[in-house]
Structures are given as C-alpha cells and as structure tokens.
Amino acid sequence: MPPSSAASATAWTRAARQMFAKLLGEFAYEGILTPEPEGLPARYRLAVPGGPVYRFRARRGAYGHWRVDPASLTPSADPLAFLTQAHDTLLRLPGDTLGHLLRELTATLSADVRLADAAPDAAALADLDYAALEGHLTGHPWLVASKGRLGFSATDAGRWTPEARTAARLPWLAVHRDLAHYRGIPALPTAERLYAEELPDHTRDAFARAVSDRGRDPHRYLWLPVHPWQWDETIAPLFAPQVADSAIIPLPADEDLRLPQQSVRTFLNLSRPHRRSVKLPLSVLNTLVWRGLPTERTLAAPAVTRWIHALRDGDPFLCDETRVILLGEVASVTVEHPLYDRLPTVPYQYRELLGCIWREPVGPYLAPGERARSLAALLHTDAAGRAVTAELVRRSGLPGREWLRRLFQALLPPLLHFLYRYGTVFSPHGENAVVVFDEDDVPVRLAVKDFVDDVNLSAEPLPELADLPETVRDTLLTEPPDFLTQFIHTGLLVGVFRYLAPLCADQLAVPEKEFWGLVREAVLAHQQRFPELKPRFEQFDLLTPRIGRLCLNRNRLYADGYRDRPRRPHAVVEGTVPNPLHTP
User: Is 50 exceeded by the pLDDT of residue 5?
Assistant: First the structure.
C-alpha cells in the first residue's frame, strides 16, 4: 500500500498544482497551448472555451521555454480537471487518447505524492550514493506523463518502481539454446565465463541441478534473470508452450539484492556493487515506448560496446584527457519468441519480450574520492525549493559561474569529440549521462550509458566510419548531419540545461544569458582545440540560428497516442526555436 500521506488531500493538491504548472509550460513550449499575455510583466492567461480562464505567472527562457509558477495558478489548479474541460476544444484529443492519458497522469501523480512523502532535503540527497539517489528523483522533466507505467497495478508500483526504493532478489530462467543466444565482448567469450564472474559456485550448481531434475542437459541451456512482473504478466502466458516442454525452466532467485533505477527495467546490484547491472525487458508503457528489449539490439549490444570502447581507447583526447567513462553493455542473452519474432507487422512490444543485457556499473571506474550522480539529480529540488545543484556548489567552495564552467568542461568535450571526429552521438539526457565529481563535489568528468538504444551515426559517409563492423552498422540508427546535432541539443541542452539555467539564475546568481554564454564558450573552446576539424564544425553545426523543435508530449497526444505500432515511435519535430548558442 502507498504511505498514509499519499491519501492526504494536501499532498495530492500540491502535486496536482505542480503537475498542472508543468503541463501548461511544456504544452506551451511545444505549441500545443498558446497562453496570452495579460498586460503585466510575466502574467498570462489561458481561456478554455465554455470553461474557466486560468491565470498564472511564467518566466520565458532559452529555446522558447516556459517556467510556470505553480503558486500563481488561479483558479484552483488540477491537470485532470483541465483535460476534461479542454480535451475537445483546446487540445482536440480523441477519446481513446484522453482516457489513457488521464490514467497515465493519475499514476504519475500517485508516484509524485509517494516521492514527496518524507522527502530528504537537498543536503541529505547530496550525501546519498548513486543507487540510493536514483530512488528520490522525480523523473523526466519534459514529459508530463513521466511515470505512467501502464501495466503496473498499485501494488506493482509500490514494489517495482524506483520511488518504492525496495531491493529484491531476481529469479532466473534456463532457456534452451534453440531459443536463446549469447553474445559477449572478447573478455566474456562464453556465457559460462559470464556466469563464473556473476554467480557463486553454489548458485551455478543449483541452477544446473534444476535443469537436470527436469531430465534435461544443463549444457544445452542459457541462464538469465527475469523481472518477476514480466514473468507473471508476459513470459508465463506467452511462452506457455515452451514452459510446458521445458524449453524454458524456472530457476530459483540468486542471492543478490538489486534495486530498480530510474528506467525501472535496470537493476543495480546492492549486495555486490562492483558486479554488473542487469537491464531486463518490461512490457510496461512508460514515457513514449514499451520498455522491452528489441531482439536484434540486444544481440548487438556487446558488439556496439566493443566498437565504442575501441574508439575511445584509440583516441588520447577521449581516453587520457577527458577520461570519459563508457559503461559497456558487455554481455547479452536474447530469447526469441517462436511466433512473434517472425512477424514484423505485429506490435513491437511482442518482439521485445525476454532477454537480458549486463552493463558495467560506474563504481569500479571511480578514483578514490570521486562520486557519481546522474545528470538528472542536478535538476532536483527539495520541498523547500532548494536545488541539489546549489548544495553541491556550496560544498565545492567555488563561485557558481566557475562551478558551471567546470560542469560544462566535464560534459561537453567528450560529447563534441565523438560528434565532430567520429560522426557519432550519444543521447546525453538526464538518465543516460552521469556526472563524476571530485572529493569537493566539483564536476570533473562524464560517464555515459545506453549505447545500443541511444547511439546514432552520421548518415553521410565519414572516413572514421569506413571500418564500422557490419553488426554495428546494421543496428545503430543513422541520421543526416543537421539532425545528428539534435541529440545534443535535445538530450542535453533542451532536455536538461533548459531547466538548469533558471535554477542557476535563482539559486547561484548566474543569469540565464550568462549560463548559455558559458555553454557556448565551452563549444568554441573545443573547436579551437581541434582546428583541423573545422569542416566538421560546419557539417555538424551546433551554433545555427534556430533548431527544430522536438515535441515529446505531441508524440503521446497526437502522433502515436496509445496505438500499437510495429515500430518504435520517433519524436515529433514541430516548427523551430531560437538557438541560445548562436550568438554570445
């Protein structure tokens, strides 16, 4: 059951007011709503035909950002009521989208209320380690329905979400090698080598006995952990014939306690923190997609890791200067469904049902005194409104602008070098990008994860990509150069810095214009460091006057809704916004 405060009217009202402010700001940013100025500075109104007129204060910012003040909203603000008032006039939502959206927003509000219950202050949050801090973060800053997790019941949400902060032992499955396939980096050439590193001898013996007790040869099976919810809701019913004939054999849970992270489907090992994380498919609709593991990408993950690591290790700037950490997806087990994986027109969720990716944890890469926090943590504010960023700056002893300069120096050079030198770009959003801090809480370097899902390549041929392995070439998405830069703009600048800039203006006394000037300064400094790449700076132009406006909420409301598709959706581009990096 949720904590008792989750039922309190006060907690719900506060969360609803904050969500309504977020909805107005993000829908206005994406051009879904058009608030009108009221004549006074920073005052706006939004009239619902046949309904109320909402009034509020809002600050405008870079990229056309709206920052709506929740306390200023009148009349009494409720995003659920607003949708019922405006769905067929201002928003023009079809009934099926409206129904599912109300459910997603209600689930998100429930999660927000749980997070607010006895939430630590910024100082206490700054003391938490990487795994524990993840359980206090509030989720995607841009998507309004950020924690919908359609498919989870209230009990599931209280057990398997990051805000539940509940560690669990994961059960495993043995799957016959006719269905299951193993891939690993050269250091993990066989599944047996992986299991020897991940599982104690007695656990491996117990797994082998469980297979032998079914009269089957353990050597003909691969093992992988499975999310308990996924087993009950998806694997047991959809793989029922394979379970019946012992092609899939349930195994006991291993001994390690694992904690779900912000992505919900990734678990960190608390019992043995230096062991690898596991990323498991979860047939839950959250943010924009079903959170499964695509079969072909799971197979290719170790090959992508090997290639990305080779780029870094062969480049002194990346390897020795920036010391960028690339958290490799070093091994995978993929399980084919005998029917669905051969049917390309069925909804894509049915081709992402069962598998596992083992990913390196950040801990072993940290030097003494270093600590890691996800980039999303910098946006977190406590109940009093104090940002974790402000607390870290206080601890560092540096002026706010100097701390920000160090942050940008840690984040941008490796990302820019991969883009300019290799035509390769990560999606460095708040969850995928991890900031490494020194003992004084000064940002010093970057760690990146999620390669196979979020690395994209230049569609235009580059000499540096001429020897790209076929497995990698066939797996990673390619984009034209003018869109490849969108992953840095949208993932980092729009998706994180758009929110960090006003926080820093309020709490670090660094005006927004100066904030963006520091970002531009970091880009230009990198370009000056590598003048031989000047043609690439023009090819991958981050300083163009305007950029396409990606619209994540429009995906849910209009482009994709809640319809099943055979392929994963892509973000909608609607119009353009001014680029704050264009001029000083």
Answer: no
Please indicate, yes or no, if residue 548 is contained in any of the structural domains: no
Per-residue pLDDT of 334-344, as tens digits, reads: 999 999 999 99
Identify the CA nearest to 297 among candidates 228, 356, 360. Answer: 356
- The total of other beta-carbon atoms located within 10 Å of residue 476's CB is 21
Q: Are residues 62 and 140 in the same domain?
A: yes
| Residue 550, in any domain of the structure | no
* Cα–Cα dist 340/356, whole Å: 18
Whether the CB-CB separation of 225 and 280 falls below 8 Å is answered with yes
Both 280 and 335 in one domain: the answer is yes
| DSSP designation for 375 | G
Alpha helices in 161-233 (DSSP H): 191-198, 201-212, 228-230
> How is residue 185 written in tokens?
């980096």
Phi, psi of 179 (to 5 degrees): -105, -30
- d(Cα 504, Cα 386) in Å, to the nearest integer? 11
Indicate if 383 and 490 belong to the same structural domain: yes
- Tell me the C-alpha to C-alpha distance, in Å, between residue 87 and each of 23, 33, 81: 13, 12, 10
Spatial CA neighbour of 288 closest among 529, 576, 557: 557
Phi, psi of 12, rounded to the nearest 5 degrees: -65, -45
Domain that holds residue 404: 369-543
DSSP 8-state symbol, 8: -
Instruction: Work out the number of other CB atoms within 10 angstroms of the CB of residue 383.
Output: 12
Q: Which two tokens stand for residue 162?
A: 């990051």
Instruction: Report whether 80 contacts 102 (CB < 8 A).
Output: yes
Confidence (pLDDT) at 4: 47
* CB-CB contact of 77 with 21 (8 Å): yes
Question: In degrees to the nearest 10, what's the CA dihedral of 461, 467, 472, 478?
Answer: -10
Contacts of 354 (CB under 8 A, 6+ apart): 173, 175, 224, 226, 230, 234, 235, 239, 281, 335, 337
Tokens of 233: 């809701």
Give a yes or no: residue 572 inside a domain.
no
Query: Mean per-residue pLDDT for 481-495?
Result: 95
pLDDT in tens, 143-162: 999 999 999 999 999 999 99
The HSE-up count of residue 5 (CA atoms within 13 Å, CB side) is 13
Looking at the 3D structure of the chain, how many domains does it have? Answer: 3
For residue 186, whether the previous peptide bond is cis, meaning omega lies within 30 degrees of 0, is no
Q: Are 300 and 475 in contact (CB under 8 A)?
A: yes
Q: What's the pLDDT band for 329 if we cut at 50, 70, 90?
A: very high
Query: Which of 160, 175, 194 is the C-terminal boundary of a domain?
Result: 160
Q: Name residue 65's beta-bridge partners.
A: 61
Closest CA to 109 of 20, 30, 33, 26: 20
* CATH classification of the domain holding 55: 3.30.310.280
Cβ neighbours around 465 below 10 Å, total: 16
Residues 354 and 305 in one domain: yes
67 by DSSP, 3-state: which? Answer: strand
The domain that holds 496 is classified in CATH as 1.10.510.40
Q: Are residues 375 and 485 in the same domain?
A: yes
Q: How far apart are CA 51 and CA 33, in angstroms?
A: 15
